[in-house]
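Hello,

I think I submitted the adenosine-5'-diphosphate job twice by accident. Can you confirm which output corresponds to this input? Input:
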Amino acid sequence: EFVQAATRKGTMDDKEMTEQLSAKELKKQSIDEVRKSLPTFAYRQDLLNAIEEHQVIIIEGETGSGKTTQIPQYLYESGYCKGEMKVGCTQPRRVAAMSVAARVAEEMGVKVGAEAGYCIRFEDCTSERTRIKYMTDGMLLREFLTEPDLKGYSVIMIDEAHERTLHTDILFGLVKDIARFRPDLKLLISSATLDAEKFSTFFDDAPIFRIPGRRFPVDIYYTKAPEADYLDACVVSVFQIHLTQPPGDVLIFLTGQEEIETCCEMMQEKARALGSRIRELLILPIYANLPSDMQSKIFEPTPPGARKVVVATNIAETSLTIDGIVYVIDPGFCKQNNYNARTGMESLVVVPCSKQSANQRTGRAGRVGPGKCFRLYTAWAYMNELEDSTTPEIQRTNLANVVLLLKSLGINDLIHFDFMDPPPHETLVLALEQLYALGALNHLGELTKLGRRMAEFPADPMLSKTILASEKYNNFVQHRSLKRARDVRDQLAGLMERVEIEQTSSGGDSAAIRKAITAGFFYHTARLTKSGYRTVKQQQTVHIHPNSSLFEEQPRWMVYHELVFTTKEFMRFGINKIFLRIRMGNSCLVLSFLLGKQLQLQCIEIESGWLLEVAPHYYKSKEIEQESKKMPRKQGKSAAELG
Ligand code: ADP
Ligand code: MG
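Support: Only one job matched these inputs. Its output is below.
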């Protein structure tokens, strides 16, 4: 009765149709049906007409009505992406950007990253084909650095505007500005109810387009007394619902990954204890750092007879819509960053959520039918302890990062920047002070060369300065490489287990690693002679590449991976190639990670004695000692053992 989605299944059950249509066609058909069933669909043409007529439109619609997934597709379908133009849509949250892009790609019948893609920090899943681009608000902000007029976009949709994240707030000012000299650019400011008037006022009284949602009544239950342990209370409530209430999925709002994982474990344990006495309970977490294949699980339909429990951060408040939710459990907290400009201290703290959040959460229970919301706090607390709305992030965060970015966009007068709600004066001043101290600004408050370079990094100024300082101190790391290194390492570790090698650490002894490499590459040994490097067996003349840090060092004995003939035969150690041959891919990263050195190891220094150790059958000690006597070892820095 509750799950309206059952009516959508009609086509799936239709036997005749099933026989005629392939699975793919059937899927496409059911996707089309879902698309047409969304509240936005009825307003498709009206909306397109309004966009045609006005440059800026505020769109207000209930969560789940289809704003994020449908509107960019309507624009795409009606020609807004002609001539390689893109429709850009910002999301305050990474998970949402990834998830909606995946959904839209599925609806369009393409791979994510093709016509529909997403871009989040450290992950660009777009291509030249991408026409609908979902991205975090922070990413669009950074695009201003390379494309100040956003000329590649025909439409920018600032979605989830009500979230009022720092980046979204800054975007408001910037897009309002460029809209003045790009009359062809369309701006859509969309939000889940509330604040539409405020957005309209800010954007010079832009018209408001309201998409009436369907919303069923939701009964709200409060606790009689405050809960001492809200995680425990969540678990108790879930099982009460599961044992006493009609079908329908449950959504729990917690504050972060750790809490979510704990709660899931507690529920799993309890479900195990009850065993077959209860119907199946599917417990699914969702938070920002969850791997994306796990994230998509929350959208899979619940099997008949089972009940799904989604344990989420406030990402599920408005950014993601999970169909089938009938019960919401809300302990009434969220994690929030706070900044004290006087002490310069930043903190991430768990605070009571706002009434606005509480009501959004409640609304999630009424999408498919009448629902129930269990608030794990008292009615008195709701009335007296919850703020009406969440303070915009710009008023409670460190602004150093954003100030640096604005400065590098040439916006010098920050006091008069077009803020929807200006940040506290002292926060701005402190940000300027911090940037001056880091050397990003000079005493006139102008961007320095260092500051310009710092602004290029999507990181806090202290971090970007750290990264830039590595130019002087040589301390380079790359997030993605390390991540990939870990994946490859896991694969290698698995294979090592298969061939029964116990893993131990060399304890930072690079000689041990170089010995292991020599054991494999003794064939490729070169030694320094009076007339330069020669391979030991074939007596071929070879050279160290000038890019190698061993170029100056000229160690006596070397092994190399391969000879590359350009102008000379250079010795090089492209470790990736070695492992590519055993189909491991990317393993250069593992080794360079292990060795803590740069990516391309061209060649490495060895001690001649090792050759006897690793290949006594191949090298005669006479061969090696002779040479050693002739050539006195050149003095060099030990740090450059690896090149
Ligand atoms: P809004 O932006 O108005 O909140 P969305 O466009 O995000 O609405 O979602 C519209 C509908 O699309 C949802 O109600 C849901 O049915 C469907 N949907 C969205 N994302 C997914 C997904 N990742 N998987 C399956 N269905 C989805
Ligand atoms: Mg949305």
